[in-house]
Design brief:
With 138 residues, the protein is mainly α. It is built from six helices and no strands.
């Protein structure tokens, strides 16, 4: 049976608490961070020829990107539709890259995620608080 060290347990508890009390905007940023980190670990795993870890990390990245895609409200115009298509592209690139260990494709997706995350982080707090309040009233 695998046991976590006290430091790992603390880190997990801290992460869980942050996620529980985070706004929808902050949770989305956390998802981007997770996908970017998973992709980074996958790239390191390829360098070490650890193909099992690579597969797990790319699968986690795909799951996060699919989660981001599934949260889009496609009735809200062109931006969500474009993001949907971009997320679909990322999933396809990651899936194929997982089969061939194509580091260029994996790095491309990581760069795209970083760019979207940076844009997401620039959204003024008054905008995402208004959106969260509207969502609660629905």
């Amino acid at each position: 049976m695998f046991r976590r060290s006290p430091l790992e347990q603390y880190g997990r508890a801290k992460h869980d608490a942050q996620a529980e009390f985070a706004s929808a905007h902050e949770k989305t940023l956390m998802l981007f961070d997770g996908a970017i980190t998973f992709i980074g670990v996958a790239l390191q795993a390829i360098d070490r020829s650890d193909f099992e870890l690579k597969g797990k990390m790319i699968s986690k990245s795909i799951a996060v990107v699919n989660g981001l895609k599934d949260c889009l409200d496609l009735t809200q115009g062109e931006l969500p539709s474009n993001l949907y298509d971009l997320y679909e592209y990322m999933v396809e690139r990651l899936f194929k890259a997982n089969l061939t260990s194509d580091t260029k494709a994996i790095e491309e997706v990581q760069k795209l995620l970083k760019t979207i995350k940076e844009s997401w982080a620039k959204i003024p707090s008054e905008v995402h608080h208004v959106s969260s309040a509207k969502a609660r009233n629905i």
